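Q: Please design a sequence for this.
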């Protein structure tokens, strides 16, 4: 997958393309309250993902391997989940599926969750190698879903 995880990033871009181009294939339209929940999830995902990017500052990279000279960030959104940008993208994809009334969109949100779970596994190996405090941080903070997983 490359020295910095370039393959993970490329696969992620392909998956995003599939998600954005997926047609709504639900036999019955979703109720308006589910579509409203979708809008709320999309808004919350934008806040969480953007907050995660800002909190990383100069440590932000499109690749899963930590940047040289970076620092471990464990405050702000990183006190809620270890991967808030991934969490935001998953939440936004689920919200888009609900807004579109698309069962396929919801399935793709699950696929994206599984992808980020695997990608973050490799990323966390590199984070543990780069930051001595990372294993203790892993014990305190959930990976992708606050207080749950």
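A: Design:
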């Amino acid at each position: 997958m490359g020295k910095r995880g370039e393959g993970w990033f490329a696969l992620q871009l392909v998956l995003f393309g599939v998600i954005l181009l997926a047609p709504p294939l639900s036999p019955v339209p979703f109720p308006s309250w589910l579509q409203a929940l979708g809008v709320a999830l999309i808004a919350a995902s934008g806040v969480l993902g953007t907050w995660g990017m800002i909190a990383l500052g100069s440590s932000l990279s499109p690749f899963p391997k930590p940047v040289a000279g970076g620092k471990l960030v464990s405050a702000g959104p990183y006190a809620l989940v270890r991967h808030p940008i991934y969490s935001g993208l998953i939440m936004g994809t689920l919200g888009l599926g609900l807004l579109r009334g698309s069962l396929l969109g919801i399935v793709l949100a699950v696929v994206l969750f599984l992808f980020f779970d695997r990608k973050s596994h490799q990323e966390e190996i590199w984070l543990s190698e780069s930051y001595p405090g990372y294993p203790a941080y892993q014990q305190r903070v959930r990976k992708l879903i606050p207080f749950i997983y």
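Q: Thanks. Anything notable?
A: The radius of gyration is 16 Å. Residues 31 and 101 are 8 Å apart (CA to CA).
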